[in-house]
C-alpha cells in the first residue's frame, strides 16, 4: 500500500513520522471520525467496513519507518494499540509519565521574563500531555493554578478578575485573554515611560551644550 507523505487535508490523514505522536494522535482520531463516525466505532471488528476504512487511514497516516511496526496488522484496533505502546509505553510506563506530568503541573510557575502567550503554551502542553495519557486535568484546576502561579506584577489584575467574574464559569482562554490585554497595557506604559526618560535626557544634554 502506498504511503501518503503529504498531509493533513480534507482527504489526506496527518502523517506520523515517529516524533510527532502527541500531535498526530488526536488529529488522526478526528480525521477518521470525519470520514465516517462508524469507522472509528467499528475499528475493533476485523470484518467490518468501518475497520477496513480505519485501518487504511492508519496505514496511510504513517511514514515508511513507522509502517514497519504495523504492516502485518489486520485490524485497526491492533495497529492503534501497537502505536500506543510504541509511543506512549505500557501501562506502567504511562503511570510513570503521568506522575512526572503531575509533578510538572504542581511546580508550574510563570517566570518574570516569560510572556503570557509563552506561559499559555506551556500550560496547554502539560494539559495535552496528560490528556493523551488518559487523564484529563479539570479546567477549573488549571485555571486556579494559573491564577496562583503568576508573577507579582499580575496581582492587581488577578484580584480584579476574581472580583469581576465567577471563577467556576470562567474559561481558560478567556483568562489568558484578560492577562494578555493586561500585559499589553503594562508594556505600553513602560514604552511611554522609556520614551519620556529618553526625551528628557536628550533635552538636558542639548541644554548643557548650549
TrEMBL record:
Superkingdom of the organism of origin: Eukaryota
Protein name: Gag-pol polyprotein
Organism whose genome encodes this protein: Cucumis melo var. makuwa
Organism placement in taxonomy: Eukaryota, Viridiplantae, Streptophyta, Embryophyta, Tracheophyta
Amino acid at each position: 500500500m502506498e504511503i501518503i507523505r503529504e498531509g493533513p487535508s480534507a482527504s489526506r490523514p496527518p502523517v506520523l513520522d515517529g516524533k510527532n505522536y502527541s500531535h498526530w494522535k488526536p488529529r488522526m482520531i478526528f480525521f477518521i471520525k470525519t470520514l465516517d463516525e462508524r469507522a472509528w466505532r467499528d475499528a475493533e471488528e476485523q470484518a467490518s467496513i468501518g475497520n477496513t476504512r480505519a485501518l487504511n487511514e492508519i496505514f496511510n497516516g504513517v511514514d515508511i519507518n513507522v509502517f514497519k511496526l504495523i504492516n502485518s496488522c489486520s485490524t485497526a484496533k491492533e495497529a492503534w494499540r501497537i502505536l500506543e505502546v510504541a509511543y506512549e509505553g505500557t501501562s506502567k510506563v504511562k503511570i510513570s509519565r503521568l506522575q512526572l506530568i503531575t509533578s510538572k503541573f504542581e511546580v508550574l510557575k510563570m517566570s518574570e521574563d516569560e510572556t503570557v502567550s509563552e506561559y499559555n503554551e506551556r500550560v496547554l502542553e502539560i494539559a495535552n500531555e496528560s490528556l493523551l495519557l488518559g487523564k484529563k486535568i479539570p479546567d477549573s484546576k488549571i485555571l486556579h493554578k494559573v491564577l496562583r502561579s503568576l508573577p507579582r506584577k499580575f496581582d492587581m489584575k488577578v484580584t480584579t478578575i476574581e472580583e469581576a467574574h465567577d471563577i467556576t464559569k470562567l474559561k481558560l482562554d478567556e483568562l489568558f485573554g484578560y492577562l494578555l490585554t493586561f500585559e499589553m497595557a503594562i508594556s505600553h506604559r513602560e514604552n511611554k515611560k522609556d520614551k519620556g526618560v529618553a526625551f528628557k535626557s536628550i533635552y538636558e544634554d542639548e541644554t548643557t551644550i548650549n
